[in-house]
Amino acid sequence: MSGAQKSLTDVQFARELESRGAHRLRCKIVNETPRVYQALCRDCSYKAAPGDGTATTAAIEQHARETLPAGVRETPTSARMNGDLAGSIVALARTAEKRRGTRIDLIEATDTIAGAIRKELRSGDRVTIQVATPKPNVKQVITYYAARARHNSNIYKEHDALIRDDAILGVDVTVVGHDWEWVPLRGVAFPGHIATDEERRAFGLEAAAVVAAFRALLESEARDNSELAGKVTKLTPR
User: Fold this and answer.
1) Which of 11, 23, 41, 173 qualifies as a cystine partner to 46, CB 3.0-4.6 A?
2) Which residue from 30, 17, 31 is spatially nearest to 63, judged by alpha carbons?
3) Strands 167-169 and 188-194: what pairing?
4) How many domains does the chain have?
């Protein structure tokens, strides 16, 4: 069957009974709310059409039950439900495994990008940009810092990091959570945490703007340094 005459999900029970010898029904949806079918049996004169009140899921299933061959037992509702539940759990497990895999990819990608950006900066560099996905009643700008991050259990081991507000990116560690702090300048520490998935997705959307903002910062400082160096050179005795 194809097109409008294909087997339908909400008469799946009737399809299961067909596989065990019940009459074969050809069904077509003719109204969505409430759900009404036009149904025609291939093996007898049964016909259900709008207007006679019989073209419902229950009526279609009842016809399938009544035409089961003698001696064929109908699958109990509880068994069908358990089978459906088991299938749903298997599907859930597969989806969960897929999410775990994509989460690892997200962490690796964002940490690689953050690390590449941080490599070109000095601790203390910072820029402020517009958030990629503004939300009502939430601040519309976010600040990125070049800093060093450390876990509270060992404040003497520091890692170069890119900080998004207080979320730590670019640190290849196995210890996650909120027991972290970051240091933009010597002697100043702020509480932080390893970036969550949501924060990493936001960083992915903002990465191009972050790079552009830091480049503008570095170009501005380089220009200022050059101009000042030129002025100082002119004051040097010859």
Assistant:
1) 41
2) 17
3) parallel
4) 2
